[in-house]
Design a protein that fits this description.
The chain is α+β, with helices and mostly antiparallel strands. Helices cover 48% and strands 19% of the residues. The longest helix is centred in the last third of the chain and has 16 residues.
Length: 120
């Protein structure tokens, strides 16, 4: 950050952090992505799902799939093959047949809207 590079590499940026600090890192990453290209390596699929628009899936040092984040996380066979878990928002989408939300804020907004509509 000090050298003001155009590309920033982040390796496991949420590893070992408590939930509050992970949220802080998520917000920092979102801010940085407005002005820099970010390359993030992580096993935290909830984090990746929320902050990344495009992802690469690696297995044994090779890219085996790339694409739009939401689409990749719907590929159940791929995720099983590489040992990755689905983000919780994708699980909610599948279990409850809800729209696929990008983040918790969108989900909450939709639920509140639905509750208000049903009361009227």
């Amino acid at each position: 950050l000090i050298m003001d590079t155009k590309v920033l590499l982040l390796d496991e940026p949420t590893s070992g952090l408590d939930p509050a600090m992970s949220e802080d890192i998520k917000e920092i990453v979102k801010e940085l992505s407005q002005e820099k290209k970010l390359i993030i390596s992580s096993h935290d699929m909830d984090f990746i799902y929320e902050v990344c628009d495009y992802i690469y899936i690696l297995s044994q040092g090779k890219v085996i799939r790339e694409g739009i984040t939401q689409g990749i996380f719907l590929e159940e066979n791929l995720l099983k093959k590489v040992g990755l878990d689905k983000p919780w928002l994708v699980k909610i989408h599948e279990y409850l047949n809800l729209p696929l939300y990008k983040n918790e804020k969108e989900l909450k907004k939709s639920i509140k809207k639905e509750l208000i509509w049903k009361r009227e």
